[in-house]
Fold each of these.
Amino acid sequence: MENEIIERNKEDFKEWMGTQVKSNGRNYTLGTINSYCNSLNKCPGKLVGVESRYKVSLFSYEDVELYNSIVEVLMSASNFDKVNDSSGHRTFSNSIKKYEEFLNEKKDFANGKWFPDENVYSPKLSKEDWLNLVKDSI
């Protein structure tokens, strides 16, 4: 069951990452997405001074509040910076941030906030026009 959750969250995260745009206006490459996934899976196991129950894939977590508390524990590891630097381009810390964004969006969607934020998505359509388009396409 645990492995199914990890795989589902990993695949959902990969799909979501494919829709994300970096500050330079470009999408994340498949290589970066895979690096983020590998980092979320493997880096927790490399941390020193962290209880073994925390050294699992971060894809195990679906609740953003629990995830944030786990990340706080992981970031307190004496070798966090070394592990983060060795992941290349601070991939571990960057992937932690992106997975938190992903979990927050999933939470918002589950709570009915499914219409995109205007800061993220601005097609010059009102919410009503968007609903009509969606309704017409069903």
Amino acid sequence: MAITSFPDNIDKIIIKLLDKNLRYRCLILQSHDPSILNKISNNFEVLANHLEHPYQILSCLRLFDHVGAHSCSEIIKQIETIAESSLLLLEGPLHFLNFWTKTSQSKFWGYLSTFTQGPGIIISDLVGNDTFQEDF
């Protein structure tokens, strides 16, 4: 979902799209404006409390080490561990994907596109990031 301004009803939109009765549990929110990504992060605690779920924020800045980006498998494992019991915000932009092969990027998006467990995953990213895959 591309966001051009921060809607007042974003909480209602997210709650509807992450309803516990829906099969798929991952939502990507994208914007051209980095300040909107900050607003998503700043309002995440309120949203998680409204959904009555424990929550965690995983900043994409933490997905790098002294060499480069963590591997796809490492990041998926981290996401699985958190998201099985907590609402997760994967706080972008997702620059770590630029360090991976196209195969690893496809594996990452394929995993997220079929995620069906836990309270859900929200991903914030910039529109136009070359790493977004159409299969999502």
